[in-house]
């Protein structure tokens, strides 16, 4: 078991090691300085989140499992689509 990857995600990654996966890698320290390391490992860095010290990456599942062993990786999560709903301001005040 890996300390950085939730058990359910780790199981899914191990099921198909060659599958292309979209992940968020949370880094210890500024994510910008880890971007090159993620790319060198074989991941495509789609976005650097400065506020949360994280990288949005795409790449093979086996590389994600390998990079999870690096000491600069805090945690890894599946990148999921977010849905934002607009709240009616009048309703919010009551």
Describe the structure in your own words.
It is a single chain. The chain is an alpha+beta fold and 94 residues long. Helix content is 29%, strand content 29%. The chain is built from 4 helices and 4 strands, in the order H-E-H-E-E-H-E-H. It has helices spanning 7-15, 35-41, 61-67, 89-92; strands spanning 20-27, 44-49, 54-60, 73-78. A 4-stranded antiparallel β-sheet has the order 2-3-1-4. The longest helix is centred in the first third of the chain and has 9 residues, at 7-15. The protein is globular, with a radius of gyration of 16 Å.
Determine the number of helices (DSSP H or I, runs of at least 4 residues). 4
Give the averaged pLDDT, no decimals: 90
Strands ordered across the widest β-sheet? 2-3-1-4
Which range does the strand content fall in?
25-35%
Count of beta strands: 4
Overall shape: it is globular
């Amino acid at each position: 078991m890996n300390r950085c990857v939730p058990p359910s995600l780790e199981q899914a990654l191990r099921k198909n090691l060659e599958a292309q996966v979209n992940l968020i890698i949370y880094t210890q320290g500024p994510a910008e300085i880890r971007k090159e390391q993620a790319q060198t490992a074989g991941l495509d860095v789609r976005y650097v989140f400065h506020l949360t010290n994280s990288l949005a990456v795409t790449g093979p599942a086996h590389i994600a499992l390998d990079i999870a062993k690096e000491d600069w990786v805090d945690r890894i999560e599946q990148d999921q689509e977010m849905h934002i709903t607009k709240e009616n301001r009048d309703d919010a005040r009551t």
